[in-house]
User: Fold these one by one.
Assistant:
Number 1:
Amino acid sequence: MAKMNLIPYKVEAIEDTAKEIPQGVQMIQAPDVWKQADKGSGNVIAIIDTGCDTDHPDLAGQVIDGKNFTGDGDDTDYDDENGHGTHVAGTAAATASEDGITGVAPNVKLLIVKVLDSNGSGDYQWIIDGIKYATDWEGPNGEKVRAISMSLGGPKDVPELYEAVKRAIDSGIPVVCAAGNEGDDRPETDEYAFPGAYNEVIQVGAINYNREIAPFSNTNNEIDIVAPGVDILSTYTEQKYARLSGTSMSAPHVSGALALVTSIAETQFDRKLTEGELYAQLVKRTVPLGYPKSAEGNGLIALDILNRFEKLFQSFNTFFK
């Protein structure tokens, strides 16, 4: 079976310190709903990637469990020798240390599933096994994974990979995947990476801070959502910080957003929502940017948009009373 790889990404800068809420986290309006969502408390996100620097001060308390499927070291060694997995984890759920950054959902817990080696490469079987592990995992207090985040991809549609993804979704777990970075800046031409291109997953494209589609972002008829993916500040190995670019960086913005949406919507409905219902709640919180659907899908995540509409209607009704 062929190899699966990290979706290529660009290292823009590595920094020793960072003290801020990153621009991407602000752009999707995460801080505006933190109070309403209790910052995602009670949710677990599975990060299926290169592992995680669990000693990083902004991630130290976030990791609830994990497993290594790569064959490098024993299965309890899910440390990150690449940097990519740590960066993804931080975007989803970093909780600012004294001098640190804050992720999209700072109260969630992370299940670290290491399926790619230090070079960012892995067997398809490692990824398949990792997805199955995340689907079946249960925490010490009965916790279950509420979202799976995968910033990896390959050119081959492998039936066993599809079956593993489908099983996770059928178990009620939304699967968030990076679209891939083979884009040619032309929405009319299709570029596919799997598992992102499967209809059942939430496939995420990248935009920059000017709300423009990143030229590298894959476009195809299965794009669901776009999120910030250019010059994204997050945690990195050796307890540092890095600015990276790629659809890999966009996906965890959506994984973290899903945790916040899950907390808000399940409180409102007073029950556990299905995968389809969670996707619907997520899509309700998007704004179109004016690009073809093949580039932006439903548009940019805007977590506070419903609250803003509500305030607008209230003031509108007051004005006409």
Number 2:
Amino acid sequence: MPHPIMFDDADPILARVRACALALPEATEKIAHGRPTFRCGKMFAMYGGSRKGETRSPIDTALLIIPDPGETQALEQDARFFVPAYMGAYGWLGIDLADHPDWDEVAELLDASFRQIAPKRAVAALDG
């Protein structure tokens, strides 16, 4: 039995996330677990999720990413970021984009997450 769809394709925040994520080299979108995920081979971002320990309270406008290892500690201390259910155990963090996000920061977070999983050729294309 497939997961139910847990997002609105007309969501304007999703549209902005989608534009940023799919602008990265070789990036694709796939629906997984009822949510949009962004991949370059492996998944580097997911739209929507919940806080660890609060799986019954989804945050539909959350962006889940793999932070740059050098930034993880600072992001964990920023109150806007949270450890997501399921993915947090693998080093992922989430941020709720519902309240006027800084889209330059969102693009930087997606870029950093992409670099954690993308093949060297895709990172080279991004830098070139």
Number 3:
Amino acid sequence: MSAPVPWLSVVLPVYNGEKYLEHALASVAAQADDSIEVIAIEGGSTDRTAEILRSYESRLPLRVVSFPDLHNWVASSNEGLKAARGEFACFLHQDDGWLDGRLDALRARVERFPNASLFLHPAYYIDPRGDVVGRWTCPLPAGVELRAEQVIERLLVQNFIATPAPIFSRRAAVAVGGLDASLWYTADWDFWLKLAAVGGTVYDSRPLAAYRIHPDAQTIRRTGDAAEFRAQLDVVLARHLAAWEPSHRLASAARRASAFSVEVNAWLAAAVHGRKPSVLGLVPSFVRLGPNGWRRYLRDSRIVERIAPRCRIGLASRIAARPG
């Protein structure tokens, strides 16, 4: 007899994760849901990662798939999706975690909205010690099934979705081609936009996951390549504006807010890595947004929510002070 199909596949890219991995795995085990599967894509770690994974094999329906030398979270996530069997899937990075009751809450949403393909919720920002330092929310109405245009118009301004927050239809993920492996930083933003375009989205306003911010995060370290970082932002925005506008008229204020958000994100990346760009260069673009653009940018970018936690833990100054 074949094994029952899990309702959820948890894709966990892992590489040298001993510092935080046990917290991530424990947060899944605490859900006490034996109708899921956890697929760890292990990239040839040289620390205690393999030992930690083995210690959870009796506590979780855990399957470890080895890909030595695969250290890219995007490529690892795609391999996990290929191996997944669940009706729904989600990503969990080795430094993030779930809050108690997350799966019960999301499964209830899935049962209430069976035709939706993307389910979201806020997340708490946590620091390297696991202390809560902020909250990451989505500028969306809660408790209803949202049409594609309601989500995409706002999501084009900024990726406001924390990686450990969504669950999504695995079939929809396969249909949209998974994550774009050429985008090491913006692959998740591109992926959420693709998923939002092919089905309904449901937002639950309760924070049900934790997103850890720390100096050793791969995406933070790699934003030091300012030109490539800016290019990836531009690629995703241009791609989805081109796909969306022929069939749906996007308000000019939303287009301007999206373009301005790219400028701000590129400026922030440069500032975090100690290049001290002048803020005056942003002023003309901000003025051109006009009142409607200002409102859209402030609502959808979650700029204060994103910056405040990093300032609280002094992340920017610690990265800028590093040599090399």
